[in-house]
Amino acid sequence: MALERTFSIIKPDATKRNLTGKIVAKFEEAGLRVVASKRIQLTLKQAQTFYGVHKERPFFDELCEFMISEPIVVQVLEGENAIAKNREVMGATNPAEAADGTIRKEFALSIGENSVHGSDAPETAKEEIAYFFSGLELVG
Ligand code: DAT
Ligand code: MG
């Protein structure tokens, strides 16, 4: 299979606890390569746009407030089967259900403060990468 790219966020609960390096190490150990990376702090509007698909969900306001509470690290990860591989290394949304060795099992605090975001499909990966990065920032 050809190389694939996916979009990742290291979320506020993780940047706050200085876990960026440990989380990047998990990606690298899984065979994913960081081809773009920056630390930013979202505005409320940006968080609401990014998570727009969840706007009718009861946790939407809480989710957006959390995502703007501290800086985040946005990244593009590249590798064979990168989208699925990243979801695997992240673990289940709810850390109580995440498999041993996954990022969420080791680091997440709760279903909301769950340390990482990863794209769920090729179309969303493409959209999410384009929302945060220009072509010039992707160095494969
Ligand atoms: P994932 O991040 O695993 O793709 P998702 O897309 O279903 O999960 O939800 C996006 C984020 O919203 C998730 O990472 C944390 C938050 N969230 C999801 N379900 C939640 C719930 N029941 N209570 C609080 N926050 C929730
Ligand atoms: Mg999702």
TrEMBL record:
Q: What is its EC number?
A: 2.7.4.6
According to the entry, every stretch annotated as the Nucleoside diphosphate kinase-like domain falls at 3-140
Could you tell me the Gene Ontology terms of the biological process aspect for this record? CTP biosynthetic process; GTP biosynthetic process; UTP biosynthetic process
Q: Which cofactor does it need?
A: Mg(2+)
Domain of life, per UniProt, equals Bacteria
Q: Which InterPro entries match?
A: NDK-like_dom, NDK-like_dom_sf, Nucleoside_diP_kinase, Nucleoside_diP_kinase_AS
| One GO cellular component, as annotated | cytoplasm
Broad EC category? transferase
Active site, renumbered? 117 (pros-phosphohistidine intermediate)
Provide the catalytic activity annotation. a ribonucleoside 5'-diphosphate + ATP = a ribonucleoside 5'-triphosphate + ADP; a 2'-deoxyribonucleoside 5'-diphosphate + ATP = a 2'-deoxyribonucleoside 5'-triphosphate + ADP
> One Pfam family for this entry, by name?
NDK
Keywords in UniProt for this one?
A: ATP-binding, Cytoplasm, Kinase, Magnesium, Metal-binding, Nucleotide metabolism, Nucleotide-binding, Phosphoprotein, Transferase
Molecular function (GO) terms for this protein are: ATP binding; metal ion binding; nucleoside diphosphate kinase activity
Where is it localised? Cytoplasm
- Which residues are listed for ATP binding in this entry? 11, 59, 87, 93, 104, 114
Q: How does it assemble?
A: Homotetramer.
Give the record's family classification. Belongs to the NDK family.
Role played: Major role in the synthesis of nucleoside triphosphates other than ATP. The ATP gamma phosphate is transferred to the NDP beta phosphate via a ping-pong mechanism, using a phosphorylated active-site intermediate.
Protein name listed in UniProt: Nucleoside diphosphate kinase
What species is given as this protein's source? Rhodalgimonas zhirmunskyi
Q: Give the encoding gene's name.
A: ndk
